[in-house]
Write a structure and sequence with these properties.
Blueprint lengths: L13 E3 H8 L3 H9 L6 E3 L2 E5 H19 L10
Antiparallel strand pairs: 1-3, 2-3
């Protein structure tokens, strides 16, 4: 039987704490709070936390869209009033 796990690395599909701190510019305590409040999904292997890249990248995109929307110049907008 063929071993499908051969050649797979967890780093290819998951971020670790160091990656998350760098991406979001947060500390360990913030990541701990996010895990506790179920803000970010995670897995724990051997005492180390891992976060699925697909979900985290979607969160980053959503955050960027929100920031662009907030920074848009609403002063010149003429609504349907």
């Amino acid at each position: 039987m063929e071993d499908f796990t051969q050649g797979l690395r967890i780093e290819d599909h998951y971020y670790d704490n160091a990656d998350m701190k760098r991406i979001f510019k947060v500390c360990d305590k913030t990541l701990s709070r996010w895990r506790h409040k179920d803000i970010v999904p995670f897995l724990k292997f051997g005492g180390k936390f891992f976060y699925p890249k697909t979900v985290i990248e979607a969160l980053v995109k959503e955050r960027m869209r929100y920031l662009k929307f907030r920074s848009w110049n609403w002063d010149g907008f003429k609504g349907d009033k």
